[in-house]
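Troubleshooting: if your tokenizer reports a length mismatch, compare against these two reference records.
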Amino acid sequence: MRQVILDTETTGLEPREGHRIIEIGAVEMLNRSISGRDYHQYLNPDREIDDEAVRVHGLTQDFLADKPAFADVADAFLEFVAGAQLIIHNAAFDLGFINHELAQLGPAYGRIEDHVSGVLDTLHLARRMHPGQRNSLDALCKRYKVDNSTRELHGALLDSRILADVYLAMTGGQSSLGLDAQDGGLGDGKAHAPRPLPADRPRLKVMMASADELAAHEQRMAAVAKAAGGEAVWGRLGTN
């Protein structure tokens, strides 16, 4: 299973008003393990950036002046996400901007949904799991104990890496299995194989219940069933 966690930063809030993408960050995950491959690109929007947007992400026109246009990197970006399930927080925002950029390139590029296997919106997922609660990325980091202490400003690649950890925590998996600990969690564009277990690693000891323990268990289940006025549910599961 190949998934790509994706985030963008933009010049403003509404592509229909001419706002553009200025940063794309994406992290690859294979079979629920972060592979270490990612895609990161700053973009020259060829327009002014709203002051409020600069306060969010810190990206200025001077910094982006020598960066490529979206048209120059579109093929490489689409190649990276091709066939994957996209995982995005508040997906409608990012998809709207990406599809606006693709539309400027002509109908041959279609929509981003034409290039991927599907889209999972973690904001919608969080709202189902935690109705009535705050479900921003920062709030989810706090809820799931994901370290976001380096997130002073929004950044597409940083936010994608944080979202990957949040998504795995939300859905009961492990995170950062493929990351190189020496690169500060930013990845080096290469997939890392898991470290092999040492040959002399002792076998795990299997502890079986004794006859006395099994008898005590049966007595306890009988007491639970009596208190409940019927058979305990564990009794229907068998003893295997």
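Reference record two:
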Amino acid sequence: MDKKTILDLKNVSKTFNIKGSTETVILENINLTVKEGEFIAILGPSGSGKSTLLRIISGLIPPSKGTISYLGKDIQGINPGVAMVFQSFALFPWLTVLENVLLGLEKKEMSIQEKKERSMAVLDMVGLDGFENAYPKELSGGMRQRVGIGRALVSEPDILLMDEAFSALDVLTAENLRHDLLELWFANKIPTKSIILVTHGIEEAVYMADRAVILSSGPATVRKDISIDIPRWRDKKSSAFISYVDRIYSFMTKKPVPEELEKKQQVQPQQLLHKHKAVPPVSPGALTGFLELLVETNKKTDLYKLADRFMMDIENFFPLVEVSSLLGFTNVTEGDIELTDKGREFSLAPLLEKKMLFREQILEHIPFIKQMISILNSKSNKRMNIEFFEEILITEFGDAVAKEQLDLLIAWGRYAELIEYDDSTELVSLENFQANE
């Protein structure tokens, strides 16, 4: 017997008008069905639109295209069947714990006494009995997040939305809170029918969820929807658990195949691929450190085990993996990473040789840097105002991203001793070129 559909997203897209760019597509044709009893984790690269998707589901922001239906009815405005837990706790510091939880019942037609009784029952359930009169500043981070969860649960939502709800907590506190939430969920102590968790932790997704929905980047589409069929409670050291984690790592580090790109272009043929692809924000120093650690493994290494060894989450780990692969220093296949000959040479080289190798690789693999050098070479004084290069990127990415990208690429060019930049004059010039005065 099929489970009841709680939530259904059809062809949901979201476009923002960003200063300096006509429009930026954040989400593109998202299709997602949530059944009663499902715990879904949403994964994706940093900035892929995961949090935006949650806010569209909740009704906090409208989609630009597509429909969201709750229990078979299209939603316009706030979704009445959901409640959200935020990463930043989002508590009012001037209100007590009880008063913060009572806010979750503000729109309910109940007497004050009924609201207080239900709120106290929820506080007891989330382990905060006796703290109802405390203020947020008196609580630890874990206790504050319990208040946030209690405020969401008190309205008895059909769908609980959690936006990286455990990421601001220390490892032990986060683990305890995950366990307590799952215990409430499995024991049917909360009436919530489905949970959707946005997370950047692959291990967290496999531990908690029934499905892992993986979003692509720029703009986000659903690349993969993986069912996680492991009995509860899950042993993180089991071969089945590690296999799922490894599988998701493998998929998230795999570049879209040509068929996927072609399909994406056919959805909105007017949306052309960027001439310049945004480069992950990784400094030369961070990349160097990563490759020097990798050379010590001296073999092909499982990405999951490597991230665990370095104690890094995917928000910090994946950009390093992507940049090292982009520049030809590593090969990433089926969830494994290994140094290329060029990567090994770079890792073992002294500083000046490192800079020379880095210069070769960015000129070969980063078209915008090659374009910058070509433009500077065409000038008699080998100089150009930085605004010229910024304007090129603004047409691609908008003001904010363009500035971040240019700052990063100039840092790369300076490390490679290709270019110089004078902040006082805002002039970019070729390294070691002396203009005739």
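Descriptive notes for reference record two:
- Residues 257-274 have pLDDT under 50 and may be disordered.
- The two ends are 83 Å apart (CA to CA).
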